[in-house]
Design a protein that fits this description.
- By secondary structure, this protein is of the alpha+beta class.
- Helices cover about 25% and strands about 30% of the residues.
- The protein has six domains: about 70 residues, Phenylalanyl-tRNA Synthetase, Chain B, domain 1; about 120 residues, Nucleic acid-binding proteins (OB fold (Dihydrolipoamide Acetyltransferase, E2P)), CATH 2.40.50.140; about 190 residues, Phenylalanyl-tRNA Synthetase, Chain B, domain 3 (3-Layer(bba) Sandwich), CATH 3.50.40.10; about 70 residues, Phenylalanyl-tRNA Synthetase, Chain B, domain 1; about 200 residues, BirA Bifunctional Protein, domain 2; about 100 residues, Ferrodoxin-fold anticodon-binding domain (Alpha-Beta Plaits, 2-Layer Sandwich).
- It has a seven-stranded mixed beta sheet with strand order 29-32-33-37-36-35-34, with helices on both faces. Strands 3, 4, 5, 6, 11 and 12 form a six-stranded antiparallel beta sheet that branches.
- Strand 18 and strand 19 form a beta hairpin.
- The longest helix has 19 residues.
- About 35% of the residues are buried.
């Protein structure tokens, strides 16, 4: 949600810096995610000044150029070479001084620099309209009709509008703050200042020439409906101030009628809808539901099939608008519209939410109605908009305000005790301060006694209906930072905590990955359907019903492609040596059931490290990936999982890691065709590890088993080397398994330091050069013991692996 600071100041006065206001709002629960600068003209015309041409004569070395001198104020006379044919002495012009960034109507921004043009010095630029982004006109330089002194900023001459805009991440419970006055209400409480609502005291009915009958058939869906007619309007472009207000918060002006309804919506939070009154057949407005399957064409030209629960605004013949969500094609305001019916209503959030979800329609109106608007503000907003329309579109207010409100919503009454305020806040507040905070929040106090009071909460605060809610309101305005931490922390309850904390384990793995040079990424769970189709899993996709776009149409079934997109982005920015990891969820639908799994994904691509004088940088390999996987398994006390060759079309080659016959992870080189789908052309090594399987492995062991310490051996290690000729299909993991199985715990480590393949040993053979580290924790190893161990190993290598020992 965007909130204009200039607009905000129309309702509450403050001199605090925007950053200070943003901090206050954030600390009170309205999180300001960013501050944007809105400029009516790109660059705000900074560096541009009003100047006066003193002399203008032909350029000695160019027929189409003019050599001028320009007074830019502060007694500065600048030589400027100008190519405009209309430049002449005595003119007032717009000058871009040296160092100014210009943002032309077309093309890229550029900086004005001191230069020599055909041998003549030029210290600035006399500007045309298109060169500074005011319009597309390039008929020549602008000649100003002004008495402003030379050096006056051009922004002052053109009255350029600038604003600062707060981007607020509005939580679903704070529907009351979904407007400028809504935010101003919080500021009133924080700053303890008065809030000024725009006055509607001068509202008056001009005649009764355009009566409209209103009938609400579904009171549950529409508890309150207000309306009025205005005749003789002229639909045209909005005044500049109104356009600026809307553009600052990202809205595109349409016409004065529609813009005023949008303005009031963002001013007070009450959605409005303007109908072409001449399109209201029978002079009747009926609020009702239509038969399921009825069709209706909305403003975007789409024909939609209605549900039985969709609330509609109808005339005597047909539907005109999906209530609270989207207008209709026939009844919308057009240039030819002369008479309008203005609607201001309170619709049930449940009805609007259901309709918006079903039709995948998200509008500014439905956003507010879904969360709950203020039922008491409909008539005020109607009068405010009617007065603005009369002022900026002409016409006459031609009916009474019709207000159907059979069952007015009462205030919420909440009993509060001072004891609970002190207990939940953790600090004893003065009773007068509590009442003052509530006063500024529009919460009145009744039935006060020594132990507490009854809080009277207005219905626009749909999120404040319990004692804890009222206390939270007091605390957020008082300030969380103002509650000191007690020297003695305590809790109101006792709880047993599980031995295994998955969040802590995830944090430890993240720290370990970062320590090994990996960067953590967090990617979108929504992705392209094409990715699942490429992996042959399209039928299992979980499709989004109210998708924002086709590119975000399904939930991801793998972390591969979201990671590849991050890799592609970095490569396009010349970052090719990448190590990423992500701990995220995947989603799929199997046999009508939805499955959600947590995975640890690892990506490696490019070189192991950047180029350096200290050595040649080599490309990452599968062994680099398997090394980090081994470290992860060690952290989870998984020692030597079974490794099998991976047969998966997603990989060119790789390994499947298994425990007790079940896969716990896969790793390998991603198939180039798969990487190419995300725009990655270089080799990418990828691993996916089943996170719940790792947690289960940890939980199966007690803390005592996991924390095993032993004294470092006082006796030396011994190394022995061995060369084995094996069939090609025999992997190192099998060699390692046999060695550990039959070494009587003396073999502490095994390493491959060379691999040979060649005709001399056979086409289907390979030779491993292995080093064995042997050590005994009780005594020094003798040659006899070492030889016996190595001979035993060689026998089992020959027997179980068919190895030939090279001597």
């Amino acid at each position: 949600m965007k909130i204009s600071v200039n607009w905000l100041k129309d309702y509450i006065s403050f001199k605090d810096k925007t950053e200070e206001i943003a901090h206050m709002l954030t600390m009170s629960g309205l999180e300001v995610e960013g501050i944007e600068v809105y400029e009516q003209v790109p660059g705000g015309l900074r560096g541009l000044v009003v100047g006066e041409v003193l002399t203008a004569e032909p350029h000695p070395n160019a027929d189409r150029l003019r050599k001028t001198t320009v007074d830019i104020g502060n007694r500065e006379i600048k030589p400027i070479v100008c190519g405009a044919p209309n430049v002449a002495a005595g003119q007032k012009v717009v000058v871009a001084t040296v160092g100014t960034m210009l943002y032309p109507a077309e093309g890229d921004p550029f900086e004005i620099k001191k230069a020599k043009i055909r041998g003549e010095v030029s210290e600035g630029m006399i500007c045309a309209e298109d060169e500074i982004g005011l319009s597309a006109s390039h008929e020549g330089i602008m000649v100003l009709d002004t008495d402003l002194p030379n050096g006056t900023p051009a922004a002052q001459y053109f009255n350029v509008y600038e604003d600062q805009v707060l981007e607020i991440g509005l939580t679903p419970n704070r529907a009351d703050a979904a407007s400028h006055i809504g935010v101003a209400r919080d500021l009133r409480a924080l700053l303890r200042k008065d809030l000024q609502w725009p006055s509607v005291d001068d509202f008056a009915i001009d005649n009764d020439n355009l009566p409209i009958q209103i009938k609400v058939e579904n009171i549950d869906a529409c508890p309150r409906y207000s309306g009025i007619t205005i005749s003789g309007v002229t639909v045209k472009k909005s005044p500049e101030w109104l356009q600026q207000r809307l553009q600052a918060i990202g809205l595109t002006p349409i016409n004065n009628i529609v813009d005023i309804t949008n303005f009031v919506l963002h001013e007070v939070g009450q959605p409005l809808h303007a109908f072409d009154a001449d399109a209201i057949t029978g002079g009747k407005v009926i609020v009702k539901t239509l038969a399921a399957g009825s069709t209706f064409t909305t403003l975007d030209g789409k024909e939609r099939k209605l549900q039985a629960e969709d609330l509609m605004i109808c005339n005597a013949k047909e539907g005109m608008c999906i209530a609270g969500v989207f207008g209709g094609m026939k009844s919308g305001v057009k240039e030819s519209t002369r008479n309008i019916f203005l609607e201001s209503a309170y619709f049930s959030p449940e009805y609007i939410r259901r309709t918006a979800q079903h039709h995948s329609l998200k509008t500014d109106a439905s956003f507010r109605y879904e969360r709950g608007t203020d039922p008491r503000i409909t008539v005020y907003a109607l009068k405010r908009a009617a007065m603005l329309i009369k002022e900026w579109a002409g016409g006459s207010i031609s009916s009474d305000v019709i207000d159907i409100y059979p069952d007015p919503q009462e205030d919420f009454k909440v009993k509060i005790t001072y004891r609970n305020i002190d207990r939940l806040i953790g600090k004893k507040l003065a009773h007068e301060e509590i009442k003052e905070i509530l006063h500024y929040l529009d919460i009145s106090v009744e039935d006060e006694h020594v132990h507490g009071f009854t809080a009277i909460v207005p219905p626009y605060r749909v999120d404040v209906q319990r004692e804890a809610d009222v206390i939270e309101e007091i605390l957020r305005i008082y300030g969380y930072d103002n509650v000191e931490t007690s020297a003695y922390l305590s809790a109101d309850f006792l709880s047993s905590f599980p031995e295994m904390d998955s969040d802590k384990l995830q944090s430890r793995i993240s720290e370990m990955m970062a320590g090994n040079g990996f960067h953590e990424i967090i990617t979108n769970s929504l992705t392209k359907p094409a990715y699942a189709n490429a992996m042959g899993m399209g039928a299992n996709s979980v499709e989004i019903l109210n998708k924002l776009s086709e590119d975000l149409g399904v939930m991801r079934q793998s972390l591969i492609f979201s990671g590849l997109e991050v890799i592609a982005y970095n490569i396009s920015h010349r970052k090719k040596n990448l190590k990423f990891f992500e701990i995220g969820k995947t989603y799929e639908k199997l046999e009508g059931k939805y499955l959600e799994k947590k995975q640890l994904a690892i990506f490696m691509t490019g070189n192991q490290q950047a180029e350096s004088w200290r050595g040649v940088s080599t490309e990452v390999s599968f062994h680099d990936l398997s090394s980090i996987i081994r470290k992860i398994f060690n952290r989870f006390d998984i020692v030597d999982p079974m490794q099998k060759g991976l047969e998966d079309p997603k990989f060119s080659y790789g390994l499947d890691y298994q425990l007790n016959g079940k896969s716990i992870g896969q790793a390998g080189l991603l198939h180039p065709k798969l990487a190419a789908l995300a725009g990655v052309k270089q080799a990418v090594f990828f691993a996916s590890i089943d996170w719940p399987a790792l947690l289960k492995k940890v939980s199966e062991k007690s803390a005592k088993e996991r924390l095993i310490y032993q004294e470092i051996s006082k006796f030396p290690e011994v190394r022995r080397d061995l060369s084995l000729v094996l069939d090609k299909q025999v992997g190192f993991s099998q060699v390692e398994s046999v060695a550990k199985k039959y070494s009587d715990t003396l073999v502490k480590d095994i390493n491959v330091f060379d691999i040979y393949e060649g005709e001399s040993i056979g086409a289907d053979k390979k030779a491993y050069a292995l080093s064995f580290i042997l050590q005994d924790t009780e005594r020094t190893l003798t040659d006899k013991v070492i030889d016996k161990t190595m001979k035993k190993l060689m026998n089992f290598f020959e027997k179980e692996l068919g190895a030939v020992i090279r001597k």
